[in-house]
Structure formats: structure tokens, C-alpha cells
Design brief:
alpha/beta; Aldehyde Dehydrogenase, Chain A, domain 2; 7-stranded mixed beta sheet; 5-stranded parallel beta sheet; 15 helices; binds NADP nicotinamide-adenine-dinucleotide phosphate
Length: about 475
């Protein structure tokens, strides 16, 4: 429909293409969704974990069978390349299967009582209704990595996906419907965060809120949840550093810096943005990096041979361009890119060139604020120690990496880097679903998602 209550979802590779229409739901719709979730939770929590797991296996199989369509929709809706969209969709499948298995693993401990005749133990119980608020950059994987653990531990869900990618999210929910998930167990409401997101966060019958998105929104949500005593989990932005030590394998470091910083058009929370390079290898690293950046193919992510798609939206493009201007005005040197990309029909899309700055200092805005675009800032340092100090001089602490062959450097980095994910000779972006994921400092509410860590948020411990 093109009615007033619907919003068009636009293809960022071609602003003239409408991918679908998304309903602008209201607070009343949220009330209905929460009531349905509350009602459904009574029966859902009584199922065994194994029985709930069977539903997740079914959803996984249906999602896998719709891989092509869902991945293509994701590419059209937010611009990441089709191979990346397929990879993300298959990650969603794997997450569902992982948590299906969790339904048969332990949910408590036996603890010796001081009374020899007593049996004392803990058991995990669901929170109740969980509100899921997700961003547009991983429109399949993030909703699933929140919903799958919520469901397996006996919660029901009200989800508000980012409006930007709600068509893709709706296709995931369709898989759940087709799998026969009982009515009310998962409820999707669409619309603006300031309307339906806030309505979920403030609803007295929503027991927990799991959010991934920007810091500004996350802080609001955390404060609102705290004010009414709801459990909350926030995963937010990053300003992720890579350190290139003198002894690094420079080709590997270049590959990881480009992949970490520019893949998905830099729109990953774990994207590399600050590149600390030891002075004695700085020039060689820079030349190798620029040679590779020049080879990046830009265009519609549905086409073969395209490495980097557009920014997800016009506003995202404008944000990136304004940070590039800021970098120039602060005195950083633009080495490559810095402009909109308009070749090959690119003027109809929200494309920006991959961009590399040098002569950046760690106090510049482009080294402090999350840009969420394909922009790398090179910072020259004398020692690994100095790099670590500056890498830690940041509000965020999501992910970080170092390229080195020296075990001493590796150990200092593991011990001293303030980040929830640290990687060695590997790019900053790279998360495995079976391991805990989350940030330190302003990147997170200090909880962890994914793997077995998810049980901490999605359940409460009861001591018997
Ligand atoms: P965002 O603008 O904060 O939006 C995230 C979600 O919150 C959207 O669904 C949004 O709705 C909703 N929302 C907005 N205002 C709200 C409010 N007042 N109350 C409740 N909900 C509200 O973030 P984004 O631009 O989509 O995502 C990019 C950010 O996510 C980056 O900062 C990135 O680093 C972060 N991120 C973090 C991780 C991680 O795991 N740490 C992973 C991926 C992304 P609408 O936009 O639809 O209106």
C-alpha cells in the first residue's frame, strides 16, 4: 500500500527503486503486541527446552531455504553486497541451530547446603516478555541473535526492527510463522523508534529490553528501563583501532585493515577506523594500503564483482560526507577518496568513495566519533606502547586488533587493550556466534550477547 500509514523503503543503490512499504505502527499496536506476547508466554514457558528448540530448528531450515530471496532483499534494502548478505543470512541459520541445541543444556547448578538433608540448587527462569530493538546494519543476524536466545529460554518477544530494513526483518518473521511458532510468541511492530521503540521501552509489561544501535539511543533506553526497573542490555558503537607493529606481516595487515574498515561500507560496529602504524614501517604500509584501496570496486551489491556497495541511506551518506569535511577542516590530510561516488549510474545511489586520511591525531573528531562509513584514519606512532596508550584513549571499547609476530606485543595487547573483543593478526570485525560478544566502556551496558553468555540476560537465576 502507499497509504499514509506506510513508509517506502528505498534501495540505497538506486533511490528510484522502492523495495517495499513499511507500516508506521502506533503505541496502540505496541499495546496489542505486548498483550499477545504476555498471553503466549504462559504456554511457551511450560514447553521443555527441547520442544522450544524444535521450533528453532524448523525456523532455521525455512530461513535456509529462503536464503536467495532474503539475502537479495537485504542487499536491495541496505546495500551490502550479495555475498555478504548471504553470509549474514547463513549466520542467522547457524545461530538458530546453536540456540536450538542450548534448549537441552544445563540451566542450573547444585550447591552443597549446610543442612545435610537439604537439596539446594539454582534454576534459570525466563524474564517474561522481551523487547528487541535492532539496527539496520545486520538486519537478519542481530534480530536473530537476540530472538533465538530469548525464545529458547522461555521468553516471548516484541520486536521493533530498524525501519530502514524492516522489509528484510519481516521476511525473517515470516519464516517463524511458516514454522508454526504459536501465535503471540514473536510479535513484530514497525515504525519509528521515537514512537514504537519508546512505547516498547516504557511498557510496564515488557520485562527486558535488548537493544543494539547508537549510543545516543542506547543511553535513553537504558535510563528509561532503569527508571521502571526493567532489565536491559545495550550494545552500541565503536571506534575500533588496529595496531600495525614494525614486525607485522604488512600484506596481511593491509588486507585486514581494508576488510575491517571498508567492507560493508564501514557500517559495522566492529569496523576498523583508527589505524596506528609504527613509524619505521609507516611509508611501506601506506603505499601498500593505497594500492589496494584503489582496486576496490564500488557499485550495486547485487552485481558480480562489486566489493563495496552504497551507504545504507541518504542520511548515512550525508553523515559520512560531513565527517570527511570535518577531517579536512581539522587539518588531517586526505590521501584517497573523500567524495561521493557518481560513476556508472552512481549518482542515483548513496555511494561514497573509500576514504583514507593521514596526519590524523587521536584528538581529532574523526579519531573520536563513530563515523559508520568507509573512512580510515592513519596515525603514526613510535612504539607499540604508544599505540596501545592512544588506542585506549577513546570513549569506546568494542573491538581492537594488532598485527605483529612478537609474543610480547601480543601479550601486552591482550592484557592492556580495553575492548570486549581483541584479535591478533586478524581484522577488528569478526565475531563468532558461539563466543560472547559485547563491548567495554561506552560501547555496551557491560553485558554480553551470543554464545552461552546470552543466558545471563535472557534468564533470571532462582535459588531453590
Ligand atoms: P539507532 O539509530 O540507535 O537505531 C537503532 C534502533 O533503535 C532502531 O530500530 C531505531 O528505530 C530505534 N530507536 C531510535 N530511537 C529510539 C528511541 N527513542 N527509543 C527506542 N528505540 C529507538 O542505530 P542505527 O543507526 O540503526 O545503527 C547503527 C549503530 O548501531 C551504530 O552506532 C553501530 O555501532 C551500532 N551497532 C552496534 C552493534 C554491537 O553489537 N555493539 C552491532 C551493530 C550496530 P528507527 O531507526 O527505525 O526509527
Amino acid at each position: 500500500s502507499t497509504a499514509n500509514d506506510a513508509e517506502a523503503s528505498i534501495n540505497p543503490a538506486n533511490r528510484n527503486e522502492v523495495v517495499g512499504y513499511i507500516q508506521r505502527s502506533t503505541k496502540e499496536d505496541v499495546d496489542k503486541a505486548v498483550a499477545a506476547a504476555r498471553q503466549a508466554q504462559k504456554a511457551w514457558r511450560k514447553l521443555s527446552g527441547a520442544a522450544r528448540g524444535e521450533y528453532l530448528y524448523k525456523i532455521a531450515n525455512i530461513l535456509e531455504s529462503r536464503l536467495e530471496d532474503i539475502a537479495a532483499t537485504m542487499t536491495k534494502e541496505m546495500g551490502k553486497t550479495l555475498p555478504e548478505a548471504k553470509g549474514e543470512t547463513m549466520r542467522g541459520v547457524a545461530i538458530l541451530r546453536y540456540y536450538a541445541g542450548e534448549g537441552m543444556r544445563k540451566i542450573g547448578d547444585v550447591i552443597p547446603s549446610t543442612d545435610n538433608e537439604a537439596l539446594m540448587f539454582t534454576t534459570r527462569v525466563p524474564l517474561g516478555v522481551v523487547g528487541v530493538i535492532s539496527p539496520w546494519n545486520f538486519p537478519v543476524a542481530i534480530p536473530i541473535w537476540k530472538m533465538a536466545p530469548a525464545l529458547i529460554y522461555g521468553n516471548t518477544v516484541v520486536i521493533k526492527p530498524a525501519q530502514e530494513t524492516a522489509v528484510t526483518a519481516a521476511k525473517v518473521i515470516e519464516c517463524m510463522d511458516e514454522a508454526g511458532l504459536p501465535a503471540g510468541v514473536v510479535n513484530m511492530v514497525t515504525g519509528r523508534g521515537s514512537v514504537v521503540g519508546e512505547a516498547i521501552v516504557n511498557h510496564p509489561d515488557v520485562n527486558g529490553i535488548t537493544f543494539t544501535g547508537s549510543n545516543a539511543t542506547g543511553k535513553r533506553i537504558g535510563q528509561a528501563a532503569l527508571a521502571r526497573g526493567a532489565k536491559y542490555q545495550l550494545e552500541m558503537g565503536g571506534k575500533n583501532p588496529v595496531i600495525i607493529a614494525s614486525d607485522a606481516d604488512l600484506d596481511l595487515a593491509v588486507e585486514g585493515t581494508i576488510s575491517g574498515g571498508l567492507r560493508s561500507t564501514g557500517q559495522k560496529c566492529t569496523a576498523t577506523s583508527r589505524v596506528f602504524v609504527q613509524a619505521d614501517v609507516y611509508d611501506v604500509f601506506k603505499e601498500k594500503l593505497l594500492a589496494k584501496v584503489q582496486e576496490i570496486t564500488i557499485g550495486n551489491g547485487l552485481e558480480d564483482g562489486i566489493w563495496m556497495g552504497p551507504c545504507a541511506s541518504e542520511s548515512q551518506l550525508n553523515t559520512v560526507l560531513s565527517y570527511i569535511e570535518k577531517g579536512k577542516s581539522e587539518g588531517a590530510t586526505l590521501l584517497y577518496g573523500g567524495e561521493r561516488y557518481t560513476e556508472n549510474g552512481g549518482e542515483d545511489g548513496f555511494y561514497v568513495q573509500p576514504t583514507v586520511f593521514e596526519n590524523v591525531t587521536n584528538d581529532m573528531v574523526i579519531a573520536r566519533e563513530e563515523i559508520f562509513g568507509p573512512v580510515l584514519a592513519l596515525i603514526k606512532v613510535d612504539t607499540v606502547e604508544e599505540a596501545l596508550e592512544q588506542a585506549n584513549d577513546a570513549e569506546f571499547g568494542l573491538s581492537a586488533s594488532i598485527y605483529t609476530k612478537d609474543i610480547g606485543n601480543m601479550l601486552s595487547f591482550i592484557n592492556e587493550m580495553d575492548a570486549g573483543l581483541v584479535r591478533i593478526n586478524a581484522e577488528t570485525a569478526g565475531v563468532e556466534l558461539q563466543a560472547p560478544f559485547g563491548g567495554m566502556k561506552q560501547s555496551s551496558s557491560h553485558s554480553r550477547e551470543q554464545g552461552q553468555a546470552a543466558i545471563e540476560f535472557f534468564t533470571a537465576i532462582k535459588t531453590v
